[in-house]
Amino acid sequence: MPTDARPRFLTLLRTTVQEGTLVKLTLGKYRGADATLKNLFVRSLTLKTGPHLAFVWRHATNDVTKNHPPAAALALLEPLIGSDFLDAHLFTAAESAQLECQPDGSARLRVKKSSAPAAAPTPHDRAKTHLIPADAPWLRALGVTNDRGQPREGMADKFRQIQKFAELLSHLLTEAGLDPSSPQATRPTPLRIVDMGSGKGYLTFAVAALLGDRATVHGIDARPELVDLCNRVARETGFTNLTFTANQIASVSFENRESKIENPPDVLIALHACDTATDDALAKGIAAQAALIVVSPCCQKELRAQLGAPPVLADALRHGIFQERQAEFVTDALRAQLLEWAGYRTKVFEFISTEHTAKNLMISAIKSRAPGDATTATRLREFAAFYGIRTQQLATHLGVPLQS
Length: 404
Prior knowledge:
It is built from 10 helices and 15 strands. It is of the alpha/beta class.
């Protein structure tokens, strides 16, 4: 392989950063000392002090974001490329470059014309450029923003939630090999995305707007009046890739033509599906072998009556608030372990600050292997036994016994 591939890539990177044309940089195939680190994502933004590069360090269970001036950013990046990270993808408005390095020091560089959007550093402190434009007609139609593209009274938190979800989903699609703009995408476009429990459709519309004709998006909700509203707004605001159907999550069948979903989804989303409806959605995604599952649980009530307090915790758990929080923790921890058993690489993290919503936990799961790992099964049964759990909805769906 050409020995000058890495120096040529670094020259492209320096030029891109100096000219301010960086759209994004993705570093993968990590082989460094931190066992929890998976990827590094870099993009441009503008602070009061001038241009910076935002680093998002993607760990197994959390993300760490730090901003650096261009010179300092390059000084950090250059030693990582080809050593700690064997793969690097650079995207500009004009071209994309992919560097593939081998442990023996050899490397290959591929450069091609890019269809990426023009790079514009994100103004971070003041007039921020959002992934979802604030003046989008559907945001106005759903009552999130006014005619001037400003959040309506009481909707500022919802607007932030929409933007944060679009950003998170963009990263998760890349990590799952589903980013339609990436040369390493593992599934053809358009991606099939299903949102179970779509409600008024705020985040469903955000997904459809984020991906455009690169995805078909289908929202499912039990309330016909909300489905009618969302279908009308989708028609009136020009969405040809977005539809909604009235149905219960537990009743959805991807093989049933009447469901209007002709094929199993590549991505399944369920945000704030109440109590065991989250388990129903997870089971549907696992059965469909979705490449990416994203849920934000709420109202975790099922296990509360089963939970037994270890003697050392008995006094503390006399308080109802602690019982409630323990039920939330145990429920979602068990869900994460069941997803791991089902062959998914799972992360649990804070979706958005509790300042904006109390329902801020998110579980993401990326299909990575075949289900049925015996070690994971043993550990989740030990976990269930410790808390006295006999049955749980997702475990029942998957046919996983919680008692030995």
